[in-house]
Design a protein that fits this description.
Layout: H1 12-52, H2 61-69
Helix pairs in contact: 1-2
């Protein structure tokens, strides 16, 4: 199987639009990944707080917020 490269001709406007859309898609993926990571970290921190506080007593709201906010 031979690898052949094709030549594609784009106008400056077409290239600019293609680059713009590619950058938008990449940024959207990065932001989604970051939001998912932050949500996972929050869930983990909340789980750790629940484990550490699992002594039958209630935790203070400010203690919960300290853990969640880092």
């Amino acid at each position: 199987m031979k690898n052949e490269m094709e030549t594609v001709t784009l106008t400056k406007a077409e290239l600019k639009n293609l680059l713009r859309e590619t950058v938008k898609e990449t940024l959207a993926e990065m932001l989604t990944d970051k939001a998912e990571l932050l949500e996972t970290m929050e869930d983990y921190a909340f789980g750790k707080l629940m484990e550490e506080s699992d002594n039958g007593e209630y935790s203070k709201e400010e203690d919960v917020m300290k853990v969640l906010c880092g």
